[in-house]
Inverse folding.
């Protein structure tokens, strides 16, 4: 009797495994055609409206600012956050259905609401420039020496005024290869295209470097920068310290 039960049990398990395998394959096939998700991403760069604002004027808002930032982070509105090191301000990657929704969330933040902090908002999207390398004869380099750098920067590029898409086009593949190499070696961490530009060449890149001079040298090796087709802005950033205001211990 026990032997019969064991045989039935084995057959049942086999049937379940076959069923789950079929279901998994069906789910995989069903998800092969992916559609874009319903949210967009925006990069916020903020700084003091008046550089001479004394810190004492800002202290009363620190905790409320951190509390709201945490709520946004916990509900996936804020994807990543960094504190600027070149001036008082933050860089935040937001997710929202549209730019108006992103602005409404940002303008609820106490320091923005009380006109102490101003901000710029850059729509960004997936880094489509890499697609220029697809289906080409360019060999894939799989063994690359990674490069250890100590500081984080946000690199933002903007097409030079008057430069046309036709002028940029011949350099896009070379630009993509340079960015891909920097991504492979760990210099570049996250890549985005500027989402509101009709011209090519507007990018947002989260990168690593040793210092500002090193970051500039890396940026100026990019073909679009080297050929003076885009201008660039470098923002040194670090961990998002405002969350420390919510900790019980004041030493953070």
């Amino acid at each position: 009797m026990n032997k019969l039960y064991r045989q039935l049990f084995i057959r049942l398990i086999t049937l379940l495994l076959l069923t789950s395998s079929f279901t998994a394959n069906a789910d995989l096939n069903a998800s092969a055609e992916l559609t874009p998700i319903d949210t967009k991403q925006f990069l916020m760069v903020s700084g003091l409206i008046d550089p001479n604002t004394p810190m004492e004027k800002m202290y009363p808002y620190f905790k409320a600012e951190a509390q709201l930032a945490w709520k946004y982070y916990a509900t996936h509105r804020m994807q990543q956050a960094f504190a600027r090191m070149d001036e008082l301000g933050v860089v935040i990657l937001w997710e929202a259905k549209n730019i108006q929704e992103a602005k409404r969330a940002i303008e609820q933040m106490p320091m923005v609401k009380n006109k102490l902090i101003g901000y710029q908002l850059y729509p960004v999207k997936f880094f489509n420039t890499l697609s220029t390398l697809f289906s080409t004869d360019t060999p894939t380099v799989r063994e690359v020496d990674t490069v250890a750098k100590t500081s984080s920067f946000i690199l933002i590029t903007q097409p030079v005024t008057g430069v046309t898409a036709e002028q940029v086009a011949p350099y896009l593949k070379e630009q993509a290869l340079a960015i891909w190499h920097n991504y492979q070696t760990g210099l570049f961490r996250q890549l985005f295209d500027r989402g509101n530009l009709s011209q090519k060449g507007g990018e947002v890149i989260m990168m690593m470097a040793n210092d500002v001079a090193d970051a500039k040298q890396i940026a100026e090796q990019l073909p679009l920068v080297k050929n003076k087709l885009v201008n660039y802005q470098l923002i040194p950033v670090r961990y998002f310290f405002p969350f420390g205001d919510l900790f019980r211990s004041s030493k953070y």
